[in-house]
């Protein structure tokens, strides 16, 4: 791939969500907005290798997509006066100079959040809301979304197509709903913001260990939500969780870019300001007078790590208790796997291994690379190194993140013996 194509790929990863959000506000159709954005990407791939990447690449893409919309509507006059009027309205928004680099400087302040609310409209089934939002806002591929939910790729693709069609047929407006409509959408909105953050914090595939731009965007959206609904404790819980998790990002890689696991991180590199903000948000959730929800409980777990000056100072018994509570209100195989880790740290590796082996038997996490990775860690602590090496290699075969694969293979190699497979 040429240097210019690498640059275009980087621009697209950064700008695509905002571009689609801006276009959706303009044309009022999520599906059409995504098509126009893809047209603009094709134009960039055709033109930028010769002309170079524009100084304001996002504005160039937006202006190009707008012009494609105008051309399309003019060719489809049979669709009626509405499209003609929309085309005229868009045309008048062009800058007087007609320079695509200076055009389309529309404020995007809440466009992305509005797109999240549209994708989380109650007219859609929950799985459709999440898949569509991760595709549009998170920029995740259908393969990445499928891996996140441990479902077939075709299933995710169908959910996204159906969601777009449903929104178009229902004529869902591009707007943040009224406050009395928040409760029926807020749960889904929080879930997708959380999932976008997770993809930024720990990329499911590719050559990057993290995707910081995604984590930053999720944090921005979370802070806006906290201002919109200040009395909702789970919003503050989610913000707390993201702030505290994001505080570690500077310590999650070595100087050479290699991943550094939590217990091995130099905690002096953690961002203390973000931790302070996260603990303040957690306090707001905890003092709300309401039972802590899943995001607040996860934030409380993250806070245990943040408050420990050294890894060995971590209050694992409290973390295990918090995971017990989380398993009661939001049970899932992944929560159970994390609970196993906490119990193993608090009460010994055999305790955790029993839970992990039960998860292996159940099969729900058969394709989830962290299951054999956790099992390998526990086996190492029990002195069963040959089995541990096999599990690390199995985990490496399941992950699609290149950095993580190298880390897992390195841990397997460190245990000695011949390479399996």
UniProtKB/TrEMBL annotation:
Residues 117-167 form the RNA polymerase sigma factor 70 region 4 type domain. Keywords: Sigma factor, Transcription, Transcription regulation. Transmembrane segments: none annotated. It comes from the Bacteria. One of its GO terms (biological process) is DNA-templated transcription initiation. Residues 18-78 form the RNA polymerase sigma-70 region domain. NCBIfam families: sigma70-ECF. Belongs to the sigma-70 factor family. ECF subfamily. This is RNA polymerase sigma factor (Sigma-70 family).
